[in-house]
Design goal:
Elements (H helix, E strand, L loop, with lengths): L4 H9 L12 H6 L12 E2 L2 H11 L15 E6 L5 E5 L46 H9 L1 H17 L3 H13 L5 H14 L1 H9 L2 H4 E2 L1
Antiparallel strand pairs: 1-4, 2-3
Helix pairs in contact: 4-5, 5-6, 5-8, 6-7, 6-8, 7-8
């Protein structure tokens, strides 16, 4: 097609391989466990920026305004007097910090505590690609960091406003976080969690789940 990139992209995205689901097939796994033949869609973890935006979105707190000043994830900046810079991570977040992460002021050689563990590159160096790791620090950040706790709380408040009974809240939470209804066993277990530990425990679990972190 005359070396047209648009034509190439169209051919790739309309292909059968591109449109396959990520469903596992035991017979295919035995033959091609590494998926070199593209028999399934490889699950991909969200990068730090869209992950933060997704948490804000399901919590009903994402500010989608475009343009204007950015926001800072550090409360203060200084130095030791010997040329070593000090950054104090922000512990409280207001409406001005609920914009898309593309508007974050990015200091060089310093990553924010919550999303820095999701393979954010050093802003002072060029990075052609990002690695995609899986570590315990990622789960701890999504369940215990101040930002994650605030989003879980806001998510719980949204569910309380949009549904009354625990079962309805669970179903609404699954639709918002995963884009699907819960299976029968999932709904029973989730309702039990809500009744025993509160709605925020349920929303914390949703935001830290692999189904929320990965694109299938």
């Amino acid at each position: 097609s005359g070396w047209s990139l648009k034509a190439l992209h169209r051919k790739m995205m309309l292909s059968d391989a591109y449109r396959r689901s990520s469903a596992r097939q035991e017979s295919a796994l035995k033959i091609d466990s590494a998926n070199r033949l593209l028999w399934r869609y490889p699950a991909r973890r969200l990068e730090a920026e869209p992950l933060r935006d997704a948490m804000l979105s399901v919590a009903g707190r994402l500010d989608t305004r475009m343009g204007g000043p950015g926001f800072d994830l550090f409360e203060s900046r200084g130095n030791t007097g010997q040329g070593v810079k000090i950054y104090v991570p922000r512990r409280t977040f207001g409406p001005e910090h609920e914009r898309r992460m593309i508007y974050q002021f990015k200091p060089r050689m310093r990553l924010d505590d919550t999303f820095g563990v999701f393979d954010c590159p050093d802003a002072g160096q060029p990075a052609a690609t990002r690695p995609s790791s899986t570590t315990a620090l990622q789960v701890l950040s999504l369940t215990n960091s101040p930002f994650a706790l605030k989003m879980a709380e806001a998510f719980a408040e949204r569910l309380q406003k949009e549904a009354e009974a625990p079962s309805a809240q669970v179903r609404r939470g699954f639709w918002l976080a995963f884009g699907r209804a819960p299976e029968a066993e999932e709904e029973i277990d989730s309702v039990a969690v809500v009744r025993e530990h509160g709605l925020m425990a349920f929303t914390r679990a949703l935001l830290a789940a692999n189904e929320f972190l990965y694109v299938d």
